[in-house]
């Protein structure tokens, strides 16, 4: 097969169908000007206008004409025509981002260049700075609106206060710090809800939205590299009343988005997964390191034990709770392989469980 034949086959495969074109141009208003720029004769534009009473019908018939009569119709031609119409420039920009951006085909993992690594590091710094600002505002609001003794008494019931007891909000947050991070901050949410919910509601929601966008757009591998690039100095050793939890994962987990990793944690540990903090990814197998309160370890171990037969099918070789190791049979692991389909199955399981609650 010659190069010219290959090129023709490629152009044919990329031809625009009417449903696809209608989906992209459903917001088109200046349809007459648009049609003229793409070579539609004025008599056909007048005919479409006379035979149809609504703009939607006119646009539909114009697009049908384009698909059947305009030679080599492409998104490049469509967008070029839209760019010449002042009122349609926003639509042109929107379609350009969808159809003219370079794409990586058949590759679920992003290709990471040096520039991309820099960008990930900046994004990581950005989300951690937003969290630092949120924590600062929580401290400030608690100091101004809440009674410190009440906050301390409440925090003490959460079993996170060590001796000697803190004397002010700053010292209180020093005690709380090992129990929250920019990804998991359940303990802060509980305190905010109890004392300053109304004042902090918008700030909490704003950060939650930014965090979710970041989690959905960042893979585990990108997170690992971003942390390394940012040279985070956060301690990785547990405080006296915390325990290290390590999940050893195999297969395609480095390509999975962070939000799906947290879906896995929720599947294993239920609502208790919200107390896990200070995520770290290590070399070799995908070693997911997290911290939890010593008092919660038995509950977490019990919950994950109920999923023991499913661990290998989820790409989990072992879960370690301090000195306690929950390991999957090596024979079972040899017969199973983690795939992206597992993530979809996991999501369906979660949705099913939610409906049953």
TrEMBL record:
Keywords per UniProt: Membrane, Transmembrane, Transmembrane helix
Entry keyword Oxidoreductase: no
InterPro entries named in the record: DEATH-like_dom_sf (IPR011029), Death_dom (IPR000488)
Domain annotation Death: ranges: 30-85
UniProt-listed GO biological process terms: signal transduction
Entry keyword Membrane: yes
Gene3D superfamilies (alphabetical): Death Domain, Fas
Segments crossing the lipid bilayer: 324-351
Protein's name according to its UniProt entry: Death domain-containing protein
Organism the protein comes from: Amphimedon queenslandica
């Amino acid at each position: 097969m010659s190069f010219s034949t290959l090129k023709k086959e490629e152009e044919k495969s990329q031809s625009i169908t009417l449903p696809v074109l209608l989906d992209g141009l459903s917001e088109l208003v200046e349809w007459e000007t648009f049609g003229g720029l793409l070579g539609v004769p004025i008599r056909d534009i007048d005919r479409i206008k006379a035979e149809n009473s609504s703009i939607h019908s006119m646009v539909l018939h114009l697009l049908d004409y384009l698909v059947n009569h305009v030679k080599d119709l492409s998104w490049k031609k469509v967008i070029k025509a839209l760019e010449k119409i002042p009122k349609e420039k926003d639509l042109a920009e929107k379609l350009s981002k969808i159809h003219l951006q370079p794409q990586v085909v058949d590759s679920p993992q992003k290709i990471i260049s040096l520039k991309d690594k820099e960008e990930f590091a900046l994004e990581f710094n950005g989300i951690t700075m937003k969290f630092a600002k949120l924590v600062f505002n929580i401290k400030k609001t608690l100091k101004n609106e809440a009674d410190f003794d009440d906050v301390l008494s409440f925090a003490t019931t959460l079993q996170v206060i060590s001796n000697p007891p803190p004397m002010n909000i700053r010292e209180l947050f020093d005690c709380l710090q090992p129990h929250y991070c920019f990804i998991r901050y359940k303990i802060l949410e509980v305190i905010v809800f109890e004392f300053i919910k109304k004042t902090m509601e918008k700030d909490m929601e704003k950060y939650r939205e930014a965090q979710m966008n970041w989690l959905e757009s960042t893979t585990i591998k990108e997170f690992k590299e971003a942390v390394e690039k940012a040279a985070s100095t956060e301690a990785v050793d547990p405080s006296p009343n915390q325990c290290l939890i390590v999940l050893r994962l195999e297969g395609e987990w480095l390509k999975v988005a962070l939000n799906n990793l947290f879906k896995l944690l929720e599947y294993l540990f239920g609502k208790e997964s919200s107390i896990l903090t200070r995520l770290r990814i290590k070399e070799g197998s995908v070693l997911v390191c997290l911290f939890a309160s010593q008092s919660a370890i038995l509950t977490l171990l019990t919950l994950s034990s109920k999923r023991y037969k499913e661990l290998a099918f989820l790409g989990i070789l072992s879960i370690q709770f301090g000195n306690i190791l929950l390991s999957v049979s090596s024979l079972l692991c040899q017969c199973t392989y983690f795939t992206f389909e597992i993530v979809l199955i996991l999501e369906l399981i979660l949705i099913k469980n939610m409906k049953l609650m």
